[in-house]
Amino acid sequence: MELEFEYFNEWARDSLKLDLSAYKEKQLQRRIGTVMNSAGAKNLREYAHLIQKDEKVRRLFLDYITINVTEFFRNKEIFQEFETVLTQDLAKRFGSLRIWSAACSIGAEPYSIAMILDRHRIQGASILATDIDETILGRAREGLYRENELKNLTPGDLERFFTQEDGHYRIAERLKKTVTFQRHDLLLDPYEKNLHAVICRNVTIYFKNEAKEDVYRRISDALVPGGVFFTGATESIYNPAGYGFKKLSTFLFEKV
Ligand SMILES: C[S@@+](CC[C@H](N)C(=O)[O-])C[C@H]1O[C@@H](n2cnc3c(N)ncnc32)[C@H](O)[C@@H]1O
């Protein structure tokens, strides 16, 4: 099986432009095994062939291995800390903010940031929101959510930031306008520069240490001095100075 995975990784890099070798092995192999079985393929070569020729199988594969779980204001207390830094510090120091929500899934994260900016009447900010998964970005652009995806929002938020449509909630057009969605692979694509805040949460947990460290270094390079990096609740950085960061709190780091 080991050799088969080596072959599959190489094939994925060449054919899908996907660097599977940077993801934690056991976890990834388990997920690939499950999705391969459900496609009815007997081995990875056969599965690669199926992915190649059938768009639907390819989409299912990408959706399954990229784990899209997310929430608006995920880990509320921590998001509150980010809100304070964003509105009381960054907005005052930098004026027009350039913000990047990396690995944004269905858009709950960048739209949460757009809500904060709207509540505080912070104008001129732009939010770039990226993910490796085109299907999920389609949902993010559409901005239509089920009630169970909105659990951290108050009735007031729902009224202010959404319109109801057949039991679903559609994000307000003025919030949509502040967010640009783009496909971006954190492992293979170049990063933006001169950003004031980068939010990259709950994705590096799937990467091997070397890949994770590389992502942190590149995020640091993407920020202006004084810019802030917001990590996930299980992804605190133990040697921030090694990446040119100063620790502000457990999950917030300032570029020195
Ligand atoms: C668990 S979700 C996290 C969503 C959001 N950041 C949050 O914390 O709620 C992980 C996201 O990472 C994306 N992802 C996985 N590998 C990626 C990569 N190499 N580059 C960019 N995004 C990736 C997945 O498609 C998925 O949407």
TrEMBL record:
Q: What is its EC number?
A: 2.1.1.80
Q: What class of enzyme is it?
A: transferase
Claim: S-adenosyl-L-methionine is one of the keywords in the record:
yes
Give residue ranges for domain CheR-type methyltransferase. Answer: 1-256
Question: Could you mention a single GO BP entry for this protein?
Answer: methylation
Keyword field: Methyltransferase, S-adenosyl-L-methionine, Transferase
Q: What reaction does this catalyse? A: L-glutamyl-[protein] + S-adenosyl-L-methionine = [protein]-L-glutamate 5-O-methyl ester + S-adenosyl-L-homocysteine
Q: Which SUPFAM superfamilies match?
A: Chemotaxis receptor methyltransferase CheR, N-terminal domain, S-adenosyl-L-methionine-dependent methyltransferases
Q: Which GO terms describe its molecular function?
A: protein-glutamate O-methyltransferase activity
InterPro entries tied to this protein: Bact_Chemotaxis_MeTrfase, CheR_C, CheR_MeTrfase, CheR_N, CheR_N_sf, SAM-dependent_MTases_sf
Protein name (record): protein-glutamate O-methyltransferase
UniProt source species = Proteiniclasticum sediminis
- What lineage is this protein's organism placed in? Bacteria, Bacillati, Bacillota, Clostridia, Eubacteriales
